[in-house]
Amino acid sequence: MTSDDLLARHRAVLPSWMPLYYAEPLELVSGSGRRVTDAAGRTYLDFFGGVLTNMIGYDIPEIREAVERQVRTGIVHSSTLYLIRQQVELAEKIARVSGIPDARVFFTNSGTEANEAALLVATNHRRSHQVLAVRNSYHGRSYAAMGVTGNRGWSASALNPLQVAWLHSGERLRGLLARLDESDRIDAAVEDLREVLATQTAGDVACLIAEPIQGVGGFVHGPDGLFAAWKKVLDEHGILLISDEVQTGWGRTGEHFWGYEAHGVTPDLLTFAKGIGNGFALAGVVGRAEVLESVPAISFSTYGGNPVSTAAGNAVVDYLLNHDLQANAARVGAILGDGLRAATADLDSVAEVRGKGLMLGVEFVRPGTTEPDPTLTTRVFEACREGGLLVGKGGLHGNVVRMGPPLTLTEDEAREGLAILVEAIRSSVAAAEVIA
Ligand SMILES: Cc1ncc(COP(=O)(O)O)c(C=O)c1O
């Protein structure tokens, strides 16, 4: 069967609002390390990792064997009504590395459900359904998660169980706070928070939910320290802070294990997903016992923290810590980030190369302006694929190429991908100039 047949069948039975990448969509049929092979037999270096999810890479023996061991026991599922050794062990590890004191962990199957659980906990703890969220955010596809998602293109419904008030993100390039210097942006973002609390809420707000680096939003973020400045104000009111670490967790930013650590603050709750399962459905929320215990009825997830996913999760966390992948993300990410900055410094269609560690984005604009150029972005994206490199796309205006490769990326692979990326950018910019 060819990929063409599969594409027609896909379009015939799957909804169009679940988009496919590329003018000619890819079917990935095998993978090893940081490389994947498509149905036509072509191999690509993968800098997107199934949206930052194949965090250790493909076909990693330690993870495969842990999963196979669990499957061989015959217990693929038992339900949370019974003790699950793998789940308890993983919760112990996550509680230990979370940085949250007296931590409790609740496992779910997806980042959406993790955020839903965090919002459930926070709104019950505070007995309020008022929530603060950040513009340009993405938190998932349930009603509450869409309700705190500040991106029209990813919010498929206006129905919202929460009353949400919106904060400026403090990002550098766009919005009312853009172009202020870092400390002025923090001051302005704090002023914005105080004003929103005073004008758009009844005061007794449950929580603020925020991503340390906005993933779908195109890897933009406010200045380091912003969460701490916000939290000072939140603490005056007893408002909880939820850090959505679905993309930023597990050392991906290189400089820290969690994104929130760049801000010099510990959140009340953090949510995790994607990388922890290295492809197996595993996610969850961590919080102080006093907060996480605020659920007044039974609440369980049939598959949340199931034996197979948590077997994978344990192997992932062990691998991550034993190989110090955070340090690798910092080292290899610097090769990629610095290389990209140097290679694009003379291009006025590149507004910014940004991000931390192995979470890097390139924003494309019309030359010399901040007007988004999604057409050029798509051209670069397709050219990367032609060159043998898979990357992602994002940003509110679809004008950011995103990279979130496995944290096991080697220096040679970083240089190989960098060369493809730079060539894709340069040839696409040159082609755009000819058309203009
Ligand atoms: C920051 C963030 N939070 C939550 C989610 C939702 O996760 P899931 O797709 O596993 O429901 C995502 C997914 O991209 C995300 O990037």
Give helix and strand order, one letter per element, not per position: HEEEHHHEHEHEHEHEEEHHHEEHEEEH
Q: Ranges with pLDDT <50 over ≥5 residues?
A: none
Rg of Cα set: 21 Å
Number of helices: 13
Total number of strands:
15
Bound molecules: pyridoxal-5'-phosphate
Q: How many distinct folded domains?
A: 2
Through-space gap between termini: 41 Å
Q: Can you identify the CATH class of the largest domain?
A: Alpha Beta
**Helical residue percent?**
25-40%
Largest sheet report: 7 strands, mixed
- Widest beta sheet: strand line-up: 4-10-9-8-7-5-6
Q: Classify the fold: give the CATH topology of the largest domain.
A: Aspartate Aminotransferase, domain 2
Structural class: alpha/beta
CATH-assigned homologous superfamily of the largest domain: Type I PLP-dependent aspartate aminotransferase-like (Major domain)
Q: What would the principal axes of the Cα set say about the shape?
A: globular
Strand content: 15-25%
